[in-house]
Amino acid sequence: MFMRRLCSSLLALALSPAFCAPSQAQSFPDIKPNPAQLHWQDLEIGVIIHFSTNTFLNREWGDGTASPSTFNPTHVDTDQWMQAARAGGAKYAVLVAKHHDGFALFPSSNTDYSVKASPWLNGKGDLVRLASDSAHQAGLGFGVYLSPWDRHDKRYPDPAAYDKYYLAQLTELSTHYGPLAEFWLDGAGSAGRTYDFNKIIEELRTYQPNTVVFADTALFKDADARWVGSEDGTVPYENWNVIDRAGYLRWRPVEADTPLRKLHWFWHPNDEASLLSLNELLDIYNKTVGRGAQLMLGLAPDNTGLLPESDANRLREFGEAVQRLYGPASNLAVKTPHTLSEPAARSAVDNDPSTFWSAPARHATLELSFAKPITFDRALTMEWLNEGQHVQEYSIEVWQNGAWKTIAHAQAIGHKKIDIFPAVTAQRVRLNLLSTVGSAGIREFQIFNGSVTAR
């Protein structure tokens, strides 16, 4: 693993409002996302692309000593990368513009350790330009990763000199490649080092005011998104969007990152066995996007500059499978005739996340009565988060043998929650909001039979 963030135990503070330290001026439901965060959370799936000197040296970590001549791909096709990402359901792509070895994939005027010193395209290439153009052409948002840790640059031991260099490279990336959907800050290798993050973000915001800044909770207090705490692509806790860092509350939704090839962020030869299976990817999707987080899949082009065909095919299979499982055509709450207990709640069962039902305050139910019994094994619920996260406890229930039976129960809904349970057949189904802070907004309540649509 290369992304060893600092003090990940702080993530435990996010588990539940009930266990968080009190704040004199704020409470959890008072904290609201900004428009950029709302837009970013609706993207749901992104990819992070690793392609550098490590690709040619069969390793994950570079020490900064590799010659720029090492980087010499023969068939770079960033269009292929982005088309494969989009087929997998991704809405944005983050390119690792400089990894920990310090080698820059753009012709930085602030260092000679970059593509301009490589034989690739006779030193005239700019991989960040190619990737950003391809992403935008494919309809994807584009972002960059610029490692704070630099194992090559001789200025790194001098914090003042290196911070000036880092800011200069950040300015290049912020001004030359169009709007950035996300800026990725990695804390790996930074133990014992303090960066001037306030200055870094001030510089970024000068040119990119709407960029979502990702960082581990312990690395940077004021980031816009946070790391999930592992690299296996799962959210193992009740997912609240507001994080408490020593009494400082901030809206920081989760991004769960995992490579398409198990624990391999860079390409390696003879590595086919590490490719995640379709079932593994679907399980990851259910435990990330299905738990209100972003799924960030790691892609690794090979040493020719192409994403391996097996990886591209797996992404396509994954994207198609997600659509079969959770696409609008599979939603039984729409395709099956029914009546609603709350006519005003029609906007929660219309396959349109841009509309929502304002539920009565504190406790409310949304019941669907179908014309005939339906069989289903999962439900998808989305909360309207513009005014904060308000659902604190809920259940999904079916009417059986003259009583309501709970088939799923949890606390947080957040952006999106997928509950999976043994298949059940019933004619009446309801979403029971057991406890809300004020009025909760429900964007969607959808029902699916995965045993049928997965095929």
Q: What would your notes on this structure say?
A:
The protein is built from 10 helices and 17 strands. Mean pLDDT is 92; it is low at 1-24. It is globular and about 75 Å long. An 8-stranded parallel β-sheet has the order 5-4-3-2-1-10-9-6, sandwiched between helices. The chain is 22% helix and 26% strand. The two termini are 34 Å apart. The protein has helices at residues 35-43, 53-57, 78-87, 127-137, 159-176, 197-207, 278-288, 309-326, 332-335, 450-453, and strands at residues 45-49, 92-98, 141-146, 182-184, 212-214, 226-227, 242-245, 248-251, 254-259, 294-299, 338-340, 357-358, 364-384, 391-400, 403-410, 417-436, 441-448.
Descriptors for this entry?
single chain, 455 residues, alpha/beta, TIM Barrel, Jelly Rolls, 2 domains, eight-stranded parallel beta sheet, seven-stranded antiparallel beta sheet, 17 strands, globular, disordered N terminus
Portion of residues within helices: 10-25%
The number of helical runs is: 10
Classified by CATH, the class of the largest domain is: Alpha Beta
State the separation between the terminal residues, measured CA to CA: 34 Å
- In spatial order, strands of the major sheet run 5-4-3-2-1-10-9-6
The count of domains is: 2
Question: Are there runs of 5+ residues with pLDDT below 50, and where?
Answer: 1-24
Q: Which fold name is given in CATH as the topology of the largest domain?
A: TIM Barrel
